[in-house]
Amino acid sequence: MKALVVSALSPDLSGTALADVPEPQEAADKVLIRVRAAALNYPDLLMTRGEYQLKPPLPFTPGMEVAGEVLAGDGFAAGTAVVAGTRLGGFADVVAVDVAAVRALPPHLSFAQGAAVGAAYLTAYVALVRLGAPRPDEWLLVHGATGGVGLAAVDLAHALGARVIATSRSPEKLATLAADYPVAATLPAPGFRDAVKELTGGDGADMVFDPVGGDVFDESTRCIAFGGRLLVVGFTSGRIATVSTNMPLIKGFSVIGVRAGEYGRRFPDRGRENLDAIWSLAASGRIRPRVHAEYPLADWRAAFDTMARSDMVGKLILVP
């Protein structure tokens, strides 16, 4: 079968290529899935460079989440449409997944939409619900709001009743976002501080969802409310920001790290509850994943380049 294989770590994807590899075999507690859609996430890109906290031994196949049809496995009839969290191995024709990580695809979602839910919405759920603990009508500032995880945070926040201020470097992408998802305001990033203060009556944002880091993080500390929660999700800007401890002391805010997958591994019962919650929201239509584009697996480089440039509104999908 075909799979995308990382045989050497490199900043330019030169160590990554499509290759013929053996198809996985049936095994106890595993489900074999014919992949029909696999979501590309920023950690997949980082793993090809060796810049992510998970550093699999070489060679490996990236791909954290898929949707497809069951070929074989306990608990699911052959042909059943399913979604699954894979952590690795998703960018392939067939993947073997732990049975506990597989669930039925909600019937109103396409394979691409199903693949777009898991990692992004799980990160948003752990950040906003488990760690941020939102109260009704709080102000939520979402950075990188047009990317996969940022858009998931915007969508989930609306379902939770928060008032959302969305930021991005691209006014065009913000316009696309605002046409599909209700937000209180869209702002450029950086350059949002004064507008956030004005929108919130001078208090600042109660929560900040930040997958960007760098200058955006720095500016967020200047417009967060007293008692606010600054949720650190990632560093797509390329710079890991620092903060002097007098800032959270004087302004009374918390800086909270978000690792949704690790949260579930540390607290398995809560991890299962988190997944049940996001898939219940998806099944009921209360959250609406947005697919920016679908790429054939053979065109994987174009998808990775789009991810590296952040030229998307929503999720990028690879189709074997």
From TrEMBL:
CDD domains: QOR1
Origin species: Sphingomonas adhaesiva
Top-rank taxon, per record: Bacteria
Segments forming domain Enoyl reductase (ER): 11-318
Pfam families: ADH_N, ADH_zinc_N
UniProt protein name: NADPH:quinone oxidoreductase
Molecular functions per Gene Ontology: oxidoreductase activity
Record-linked InterPro entries: ADH-like_C, ADH-like_N, ER, GroES-like_sf, NAD(P)-bd_dom_sf, Zn-ADH-like_protein
